[in-house]
Amino acid sequence: MSTDYQSARVALGSRLRSLREEAGLDGKGVAERLGWQRSKVSRLENGKQTPSSEDLRLWAKAVGRPEVAEELGGRLTGLETRYRSMRRQLAGGHLARQEVGVAETDRTTLLRAVEVVRIPGLLQTADYARHVFTANTEFRQISDAGIEDSVRARLRRQAALYEPGRSFRILIWEGALYALTCPREVMAAQLDRLVSLIGLDTVELGVIPFSAQLRRSPSHGFWIYDRRLVIVETLSDEMWMEDEESLALYERAWDWLADSAVHGAQAHRLIGRARAALNLS
């Protein structure tokens, strides 16, 4: 268990103890009101057990403060979010992180994703992926060993796109079709790759046009694995969220963005327009 996680759990326990004491109750008294063993109260207050959202709701009611249930739930959500340092994940290169992506994809039936400024890894060509890894290596000042192994791992992950029974519903902001994070020739091949995936029965590729009426702006990328995990990457960390509130929030964000996306022939035209803008002879 990470130190950050345990520290947050201890802090939550201290808050529970404070609420109990403010209500004039001892541990035995709150246990009796809740119908719990006294040992459970002790474990929660000392940060030795993670409460459920229902535990927190009942605790707030037992101490006469039902209005703090939302606050306690927010603390639990923060506790359940796993922050993975990008620096630590990439310390030895990109391969280990790519292997994690392969494993998570292998155990997923429905994957929904949004990308705003780059082509999603699941849809990248080898050359595009190589430029992504190389640029990230330079930016983060990490080892460049294993880039080719990382490219192969990324392409191995893409095998899932062709497996019957899978569903990949991916949204791309139109700006990602124009962001030149690689040479124009590489981008042209990448856009051709996107076109080739339109119509594949396991892939639903949507493009959110610049001109679309938006219910919500596509502020950052995120990935929803079935209904069990949301992954959001920031500059310094990767957030892994498994709580119901976060899942529901990101599902709603995906749905709202999907309302603004175009598919099929319309998506093809937008990709073709971006390719023509490369002005290749």
Please state the average pLDDT score: 91
Radius of gyration: 23 Å
- Specify the CATH class of the largest domain: Alpha Beta
Strand fraction: 5-15%
The secondary-structure class comes to: alpha/beta
| CATH topology title of the largest domain | Endonuclease, Chain A
- Main sheet makeup: 7 strands, mixed
From the coordinates shown, what is the CATH architecture of the largest domain? 2-Layer Sandwich
Distance between the first and last residues' Cα: 56 Å
Count up the helices.
Answer: 12
How are the strands of the biggest sheet laid out side by side? Answer: 1-7-6-5-2-3-4
Query: Which sequence of SSEs, written as H and E, runs from N to C?
Result: HHHHHEHHEHHEHEEEEHH
**Tally of extended strands?**
7
> What general outline do the C-alpha atoms trace?
elongated
Descriptive report:
- This protein is of the alpha/beta class and 281 residues long.
- The chain folds into two domains: 3-80, lambda repressor-like DNA-binding domains (434 Repressor (Amino-terminal Domain), Orthogonal Bundle); 83-276, 2-Layer Sandwich (Endonuclease, Chain A), CATH 3.30.870.
- 51% of the residues lie in helices and 13% in strands.
- It is elongated, with a radius of gyration of 23 Å.
